[in-house]
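Reopening: structure tokens for the flavin-adenine dinucleotide complex, inputs below.
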Amino acid sequence: MTKSVMIVGGGTAGWMTAAYLARMLAAAVPDGVRICVVESDDIGIIGVGEGTFPSIRKTLSRVGLAEADLIRSANATFKQGISFVNWRDGLGSPDDHYFHPFQIVSQADGLDLLPYWLTGAAGGDSWALASTVQTRVSQASLAPKMISHPDYAGPLNYAYHFDAVAFARLLRDRAVSQGVEHIVDTVEAVTLTPDGAIESLTGRRSGRLSADLYIDCTGFRAQLIGQAMGVPFKSFRSELFTDRAVAIQVPYDEAGQEIASFTKAIAQPNGWIWDIGLQERRGTGYVYSSDHTTDEEAERCLRTYLGAGAKDLPSRILRFEAGFRETQWKKNCVAIGLSAGFIEPLEATGIGFAEIAGVILAGLFPWSGPVDLGAEVFNTQMRARYTHVIDFIKLHYCLSKRRDTAFWRDNVETRSISDSLRERLKHWKHRPPSFIDVDLKHDIFTEHNWQYVLYGMGYRTDIGRRAGALRYYEDAKAAFEDIRRQSDYALQIMPSHRSLIEQVRLHGFERPKGV
Ligand code: FAD
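Re-run output (same inputs, fresh job):
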């Protein structure tokens, strides 16, 4: 019987897992599971990871955090998607941009609009513009919801940008209020049993620490699963080359400036720059490949992007490697967060993986039976998710027509593209991505995400032979017109992003009457 869980690590992964499991495993009641977080005061958290995925709303709702508290305490803003600039050919044309919205494609009475878009029924509009109102709403710096909408809900799909350090602190307070014990200490040693399970930990101040199940949230150190238990890390560096980022936090030029409600991802000679708008500052960073450029050159490139105002702002270099551990649950230890794996910052999947791991672990939790009963299922599920995301991220790079540097030329080398991705691209020359291409149980990204990126990058699917079978052309044209009208209406009624944030900070979201 598993009565106690010890989470080592107090970054986003550690505290999010603690807060989530506290609710799911009833840490606050006598019959529930005892949960403890051991967090080092010597080793900091990574402190990046400020863009999220819409799944975060469900997670935070289950954790029992009020959305207004997130906005007030974590400097959070709304994120409605990602704007990609200079990814197609990098020649500086104003057309070299596309939007990947979170809102899924509008369905017109069950009519799949994509084949009609491919045959020109939406005129010259891009797929993201033609198929959802979110593109225009977010580009006009409007919010995805109103003050009258309930927590974590609104007419448009959204996630958040937030201050990673403040977010971890907020989750810590929530977890502790739900009965999670907090030990500030550094784990110096991990003692294994003869069969390789964790017998106990040794804290510098606390001495021996033990539990039935251990969760490794120690970040890239992977102190339990990697260093102590020797579970190997599988690198995908030969497919995804970026392995470093230089990050700079930038204050706004003027107080009260509009806040972008999407992440900007601007392609560069050897990677890409992220630009994220929080309430009082922007978080920016250049993600690059150390095989293709130097730290100094990358920093110069980021500072050139930021302009003279950022000249004296401090920078930080972060190192990572695309990959994951194929075994993330071994015996009585489960890895969640960076200790389990990391792909790269593009499309902000890091926190999403930690969320999923927490949800799967709660579902497989060994209330009774052997402590590792769920390990095989957990590992299979996580492996599939990581593998699919690697293909999705690679899609962004391998469709580019940029040939200005070795970085972009190497990205289209056949050997750097997995068989599964090449196979998919072969199909999509003749038919668009559909539900058939996603594994509904495992995939973080659905066919909508693949479509937005594929067609955003200018990929051509030739369905000319099928054109005669598209019998609802007029209905499709009317549906696109309807989306245009809905967008016009949304532009009139949705609040500005900053004004909603400011209102929520002052008054919170309106509660429905009687609640
Ligand atoms: P960390 O934040 O590193 O926390 C590790 C914790 O373990 C710390 O509290 C530390 O004190 C503790 N610890 C370590 N060793 C010990 C020990 N021996 N004893 C006790 N405690 C110990 N993800 C996204 O979702 N969106 C993004 O936009 C995004 N951008 C990123 C950009 C970059 C450049 C990088 C590198 C990552 C990015 N990520 C992003 C990933 C994201 O930062 C992480 O997934 C997330 O912050 C979770 O980190 P963590 O909690 O696993 O690790």
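The chain has 16 helices and 21 strands. The two ends are 40 Å apart (CA to CA). Marking as resolved unless the reporter disagrees.
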